[in-house]
């Protein structure tokens, strides 16, 4: 995968264009039709725009037919590199609470705002193609925030200067076996009803109860 920190990473699997043993996740021929980014047609600075545009094209092609789609945004996975616009908005106290933020925090909060805007575009796209009234929409994440605090999962107050992101009151972060590592938030919206979920396990229980309640989707 090229572009993050201006160098190759994910270096395993096969030889990349630079001659190193790198897995080149975003590589395809220059004439590829809007599917994969490459050196010729790079991903925009805010890569959520690329994904939401792809979703718009996908939904348009469905022409009112049922669909199942999973949108896997990079935000706010490391390496998080925020756009200049959203970094400035945060630094000026417009999109963030006024404060003295570290460079890492500006990048992280910029990416978070990009993700928020992307979710809004997804919801607008559902309305645009008349899917909003009969589509169940979920948003969740796969793990807790990056930047572990070994050995016991307790972080010092200044930890978030280098590793923004919060697991709330939960102990631990991404790679921990404590709840902060794997108990994640989630939101489900269907028609006009929304439910806030505290962990992915609850998601399956929610679906089971919802489906067997004979609710009209």
Calculate the mean pLDDT score and round it. Answer: 78
The number of helical runs is 6
So what's the oligomer here?
A: single chain
Question: What is the strand content?
Answer: 5-15%
How would you describe the shape? globular
Structural class: mainly alpha
Give the neighbour order of strands across the main sheet.
Answer: 1-2-3
Biggest sheet layout: 3 strands, antiparallel
Order of helices and strands: HHHEHHEEH
What integer value in Å does the Rg equal?
A: 19 Å
How does the SSE layout of this entry go?
Blueprint: H1 48-62, H2 84-91, H3 103-128, E1 136-140, H4 159-162, H5 179-182, E2 186-190, E3 193-197, H6 200-212
Antiparallel strand pairs: 1-2, 2-3
Question: How would you summarize this macromolecular structure in one to three sentences?
Answer:
The protein is mainly alpha-helical and 217 residues long. The chain is 32% helix and 7% strand.
Structure description:
By secondary structure, this protein is mainly α. The protein is 32% helix and 7% strand. The chain is built from six helices and three strands. The protein has helices at residues 48-62, 84-91, 103-128, 159-162, 179-182, 200-212; strands at residues 136-140, 186-190, 193-197. A three-stranded antiparallel β-sheet has the order 1-2-3, covered by helices on one side. A hairpin with a 2-residue loop joins β2 and β3 (193-197). α1 runs parallel beside α3 (103-128) and α2 crosses α3 (103-128). The longest helix is centred in the middle third of the chain and has 26 residues, at 103-128. It starts with 47 loop residues before the first helix and ends in a 5-residue tail after the last helix. Residues 1-6 and 23-30 have low confidence and may be disordered.
């Amino acid at each position: 995968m090229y572009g993050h920190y201006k160098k190759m990473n994910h270096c395993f699997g096969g030889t990349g264009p630079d001659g190193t043993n790198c897995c080149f996740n975003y590589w395809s021929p220059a004439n590829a039709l809007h599917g994969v980014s490459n050196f010729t047609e790079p991903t925009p600075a805010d890569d959520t725009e690329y994904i939401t545009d792809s979703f718009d094209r996908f939904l348009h092609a469905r022409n009112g037919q049922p669909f199942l789609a999973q949108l896997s945004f990079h935000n706010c996975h490391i390496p998080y590199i925020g756009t200049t616009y959203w970094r400035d908005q945060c630094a000026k106290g417009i999109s963030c609470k006024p404060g003295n933020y570290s460079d890492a925090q500006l990048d992280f909060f910029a990416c978070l705002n990009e993700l928020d805007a992307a979710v809004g575009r997804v919801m607008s796209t559902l309305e645009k193609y008349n899917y909003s009234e009969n589509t169940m929409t979920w948003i969740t994440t796969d793990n807790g925030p990056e930047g572990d605090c070994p050995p016991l999962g307790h972080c010092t107050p200044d930890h978030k200067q280098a590793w923004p992101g919060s697991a709330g009151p939960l102990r631990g972060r991404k790679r921990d076996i404590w709840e902060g590592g794997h108990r994640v938030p989630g939101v489900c919206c269907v028609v006009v009803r929304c439910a806030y979920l505290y962990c992915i396990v609850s998601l399956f229980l929610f679906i089971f109860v919802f489906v067997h309640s004979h609710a009209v989707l």
